[in-house]
# Entry
Amino acid sequence: MEERVLPGAADQDRFDRSRRVGWLDLESVFRSRVLMLGAGALGNEVAKCLALSGFGRVTVVDMDHVVGSNLNRCLFFSDEDARSRSSKAEVVARGIERLSPETRARAIVGRLEDLPDGLYKEFDVVLGCLDNIGARIHANSRAYMARRPYIDGGMEGFSGKVMVCLPPDGPCVQCGMNRSHAKVAGLRFSCTGKGVVFHEPRLAAEITTTSIVSAVMVRECLKVVSGRADMALRNTLYYDGQRNVAEELEVPLDPRCPNHPAKVLQVSENHITSGSVQ
Amino acid sequence: MTFRLKVKNAETGATVEMELDDDNTVDEMIESAATFWNKDMGAYVLRKGKKVLRGGSTLKESGVMAEDVLELIPDPEGG
# Structure
């Protein structure tokens, strides 16, 4: 049958520009199920990028409510949300559906530690937009156990970091941690929430850094769901916004990391050189 | 074996010379450098070239040698 071309048709297609990206598998993006942990500054920006990119189903998890000091860096939050102490997860989920009517967004108001076993397996990819090390360790290990790609973002002032973990291969977030992480693992940066110990951040969150870190996270997510994990970050991206420098640093797999039991076994039988199993 | 190397503060560009044994750990170096520069409480990593050094490993295991220049960088934890 003869194909018909209508003048201006491309301008009517919401995803016309995305379709021009050769490696992007939009049908997979539309079908994909994303678990987004954290709906703070990073979560708002990640949600915006997920919605505009056309991700089909997004589940947002956060235990906090909106406060006034969130408003200088959180796209979806309003003064009214702060006054009414709205749930961050619910506001962000509504915001996603407003930006992308085809996306089904669901909010889970609660601690990620309380999520039911097996939940991670329901998703194609997990995005960590978290504000503390303890939650990162938890999310990373659950994603690793469920064999789901985990993309972790972190930021502080003008510094940012993105790590892509692709189980069962390669290092995970915990592999890159040391004693300084352990000392602050139980502390949160956040300003709200129940039963938490607060600690003063070195620098406040900052929207331009947040935008860059979240954009990298969602771009890597697009690669993963498009079946192009080969193009994804294999090391950790560190971003220094003060110097405008972004650099990939290798985080070696830690044979003592509890998320790599098979590797530990191999190590006990062989030798380790420079962090890799020989 | 005792040797000397330099640690650079990624946030300020300052450097400090440290005298170490090859059985000192990366964790100990991070702690010493952060204390020397009165760093705020938080997570830090130490890099050698393009590689983040593993906290619990000794300098010998990490391949750190005399005259190396390592860099202490903050590991962003916020979201």
In short: The first helix of chain B runs from residue 26 to 36. The beta strands of chain B are 2-9, 15-21, 44-48, 51-52, 69-74.
